[in-house]
């Protein structure tokens, strides 16, 4: 069968859609990039070239696996892009989201180039900490999480991006074991417990501890905020969930500056001491 990259992508998108997987238009390109070892841009440049049969068959097998398992593509491929870097991912960690790239952007724009020690609470794959370190050669960042296997993955990612000498994974709850840092960043779990069951099948594949923010969704955020207040850190930035802006405002006595995401939904809070 002689078809072009473009035609295969169209076919794959319609197959995903007809099987109830919406909002996945970018997945076929990601699969082709992963299999051919090219960037997404390079794959797009090949749109009107004929797709090699072996590549097409392998890519179609991944599409079938995606449809059958309803697992997120990131878990099937074992890698995911975040802030221009590729991270190793497994089902123990949450999949990095584009909204969280805004959090990274914001921290970079608010804090300069001077040497600083940061803390990334709930580091997961290490995507926030490593993206920050990649852009700030004088920073050092502690990444906390509650499982050794998660921290091992974060460490692998730090090594992959050459920042291992400045990334310090520590196994503890939030910042219980950390004494002095200059800034704190976190993408904490913030989905209200009773809303978890309404999330898509894909999101429900992600670790519950990374999603579940307790009864009102901001239980972990509140604990992070309290620990920040008691700490010597001067800057806190974190992500929060849909509809939580007012709760965040009152929790911080209106001290939080709130920023919207690409969909214009309030998403990030910054508090300075
Ligand atoms: N820090 C990781 C991320 O932002 C994981 C966050 C989490 O597990 N809630 O993607």
How would you describe the overall organization of this protein?
The mean pLDDT is 95. This protein folds into 2 domains: 5-69; 92-272, Rossmann fold (3-Layer(aba) Sandwich). It is α/β, with parallel strands linked by helices. It is built from 11 helices and 9 strands. Helices cover 40% and strands 16% of the residues. Residues 94, 96, 100, 122-124, 127-128, 187-189, 210 line the site of glutamine. Glutamine (GLN) binds next to helix 7.
State the helical fraction: 40-55%
Strand residues, percent: 15-25%
User: Structural class of the helices, strands and pairings?
Assistant: alpha/beta
Low-confidence stretches: none
CATH architecture group name of the largest domain? 3-Layer(aba) Sandwich
Number of domains: 2
| N- and C-termini, Cα separation | 64 Å
Q: Under CATH, the topology of the largest domain is which?
A: Rossmann fold
Q: Tell me the number of helical segments per DSSP (H or I, 4 or more residues long).
A: 11
Major sheet description: 7 strands, mixed
- Per the principal axes of the C-alpha atoms, what is the gross shape? globular
* Element order: H for helix, E for strand: HHHHHEEHEHEHEEHHEHEE
Strand order of the largest sheet: 5-4-3-6-7-9-8
Alpha carbon gyration radius = 20 Å
Please provide the count of β strands: 9
């Amino acid at each position: 069968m002689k078809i072009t990259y473009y035609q295969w992508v169209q076919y794959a998108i319609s197959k995903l859609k007809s099987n109830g997987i919406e909002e996945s238009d970018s997945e076929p390109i990601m699969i082709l990039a992963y299999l051919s070892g090219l960037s997404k841009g390079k794959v797009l440049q090949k749109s009107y070239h004929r797709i090699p049969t072996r590549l097409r068959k392998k890519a179609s097998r991944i599409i079938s696996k995606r449809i059958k398992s309803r697992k997120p593509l990131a878990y099937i491929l074992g890698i995911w892009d975040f802030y221009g870097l590729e991270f190793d991912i497994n089902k123990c960690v949450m999949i990095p989201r584009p909204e969280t790239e805004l959090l990274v952007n914001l921290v970079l724009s608010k804090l300069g180039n001077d040497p600083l020690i940061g803390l990334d609470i709930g580091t997961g794959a290490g995507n926030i900490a490593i993206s920050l370190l990649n852009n700030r050669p004088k920073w050092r960042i502690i990444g906390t999480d509650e499982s050794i296997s998660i921290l091992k993955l974060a460490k692998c990612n730090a090594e992959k991006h050459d920042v291992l000498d400045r990334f310090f994974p520590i196994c503890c709850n939030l910042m219980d074991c950390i004494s002095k840092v200059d800034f704190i960043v976190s993408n904490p779990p913030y989905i209200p417990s009773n809303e978890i069951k309404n999330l898509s099948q894909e999101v429900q594949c992600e670790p519950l501890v990374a999603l579940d923010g307790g009864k009102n969704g901001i239980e972990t955020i509140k604990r992070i905020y309290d620990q920040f207040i008691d700490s010597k850190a001067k800057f806190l930035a974190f992500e929060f969930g849909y509809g939580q802006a007012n709760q965040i405002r009152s929790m911080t006595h209106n001290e939080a500056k709130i920023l919207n995401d690409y969909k214009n939904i309030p998403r990030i809070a910054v508090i300075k001491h």
